[in-house]
Specification:
It is a single chain. The protein is built from one helix and 20 strands. The protein has 282 residues and is mainly β. A ten-stranded antiparallel sheet has the order 5-6-7-8-20-16-15-10-13-12, with no helix packed on it. Strands 4, 9, 11, 14, 17, 18 and 19 form a seven-stranded antiparallel sheet that branches. A three-stranded antiparallel sheet has the order 1-2-3, with no helix packed on it. The termini are far apart.
């Protein structure tokens, strides 16, 4: 079906929620109640625009929605690998109604992503299996990083962690401090609000990965059902929140898996689930 100018988009829908996938850019672009407001942010400047040749691309195409990157970012800097992000992915609809997306193999990193996306039949829940495969001839060390951009939420939140480097139950990223009025530290969680003036990023290492965002009476909650043992990126973070300033008004809910040594032809996987629910606004 057509969606905002893209052809061959795929919609998953039940009576509680709907999810839109655009294989042309390798993104989930919508998660909402049927006919309701989209909880994911979409860049209006890039709607319907086909990605340019990744081998010649100089700038990052921030389409919005939900995407995958390899972590840690410090190993690749900026911009993201254009062969994996913002390029066409192959799509297949299975008999059970789930959708499989597969990226190309990046000539830069030798990595390939694969996703399985499905809705539970009678719940406002999406289940995602995110897989990173090594197509190199030698072992590599990477983690799966899932990033959902949420449309200018009223607030976002994450569970607090503990341990060295998480003295307040979370970690502020260097050179990315939050304004004093942007964070509320509660006994079990951190509540964050978007700053229109400057960006900031925080991360945590809770035993159960939980992230959420609230907008106009709707709540998107993202969970990592099982925290695998191992070393995590960014000083041990398995959940992170990023706040983007004006004029692009979004916040990011980010889930990370452990860094794995991946042999040739092997893979590592991060499973997440999304839940849509109504909240009572004060």
């Amino acid at each position: 079906m057509a969606y905002h100018g893209w052809r061959d988009a795929i919609r998953l829908r039940n009576r509680h929620c709907e999810l839109m996938i655009v294989p042309d850019i390798g993104r989930i672009t919508r998660f909402a109640a049927p006919g309701g407001p989209n909880l994911l942010w979409e860049n209006p400047e890039l709607r319907g625009k086909a990605p340019s040749d990744p081998g010649r691309r100089k700038e990052w195409l921030n389409y919005g929605g939900d995407k995958l990157w390899p972590a840690p970012q410090e190993r690749w800097g900026w911009p993201p690998d254009p062969h994996l992000d913002g390029s066409p992915w192959a799509a297949r609809i299975a008999q059970d109604g789930s959708v499989s997306l597969t990226s190309r193999v990046s000539p830069v990193t030798g990595l390939r992503f694969r996703r399985r996306i499905a809705l539970r039949p009678d719940e406002a829940v999406a289940e995602l299996i995110n897989t990173l495969a090594n197509a190199n001839a030698k072992p590599v060390e990477w983690a799966v990083w899932e990033i959902a951009q949420v449309d200018d939420p009223d607030s976002a939140g994450m569970a607090r962690g503990r341990g060295k480097g998480f003295d307040d139950g979370y970690r502020a990223f260097p050179d990315s401090a939050a304004p004093a009025d942007a964070l509320i530290v509660l006994p079990d969680r951190i509540e964050a609000r978007r700053s229109p003036a400057r960006s900031y990023k925080i991360g945590a290492n809770p035993s159960k990965g939980r992230l959420w965002a609230v907008k106009d009476g709707w709540k998107l909650a993202i969970a990592v059902p099982t925290k695998e043992p191992g070393s995590y990126p960014d000083g041990g973070c398995n959940v992170e929140i990023y706040s983007n300033p004006d004029p692009l008004r979004y916040m990011e809910l980010e889930c990370l898996g452990p860094v794995r040594r991946i042999g040739p032809g092997k893979e590592t996987t991060l499973r997440t689930s999304w839940t849509l629910s109504r909240v009572v606004m004060p």
